[in-house]
Specification:
mainly alpha; 4 helices; rod-shaped; 314 residues; coiled coil; 54% helix; Tol-Pal_TolA
Length: 314
Amino acid sequence: MESSGDKLRALLLALALHLLCALALFGGLWWTQETRPVVMPGPVIEAVLVGPTAAPAPSGTRAPTPRPAQPKPEPPTPEPPKQPPPQPESPKPEQPKPAEAAPPPPPPDRQDVIERERIAALAQEKAEQEKKEQQERVRREQILLEEQEREQQRQLEEVRKKREAAEKKLRDEQARMKKLEADRKAMAQAAEAERAKAAQAAAAEAEQRAAQAQTGAGGQDNDLAARYAAAIQVAVTSSWNRPDSAQAGLRCALQIKQIPGGDVISVQVVSPCNADAPTRASIEQAVMRAAPLPYQGYENVFQRQITFNFKYDG
């Protein structure tokens, strides 16, 4: 922006320029008027100056003295064309003054310099600290991510091992059940063979007793009783599931309570008996499974309570 001093100088310069233009115009007009010739209006008269002489005597008629030819009037000198008044020169646009150089800043105060340096050092230290913290966060996040990946792999491995263990356990269990089923079938077949063998032995013994009864006292009733005992032996032996602890030469007395028709009310192993507890229990269960015991055809020798001798010779 221009200062008020610059504006004043520009105004004075413009006034001086206008004054010079006015003086030049006035001088030109004055010079033109001084050099212009004065021309009188009307014809031009020429006069001749003569010295003093005697006047001529009048005479009669004197021829008129011819008048000299009057020169033609000169045409008036044309006025020079008026010069147009000089126009005032338009003021030239004022050239912008170069901007004055800003004065150099005053030297900073020593205390301000120290304070700025301290603030800059603190800012740099804070930036470095934030950079270290950022790097530490990135490092911790990377460690956490690696730990999560390892934990995920560990869990997957654990699941795989558990699945393989479960599959192996299932295969082992299936194999064990298959073996148990095969063993059960084999034992059932062996038991069936033993029951058939025992039944045959009981039948042979019953026949032998019947033959002996026929030769002794007692007659037909003893023979029927012997055949009745043999029939009970066959029925009980066929229903017996022999335990592994049962040995050949087994002998056990049984007290059986029954009703007409052969339904068993109770059974109990009594002495003498050379079997262990599991074998005794298996014999009692065999009697209950064999019920109803043989009855039809043996009505004459039927008794509600009988003592039955169970035998097993292997």
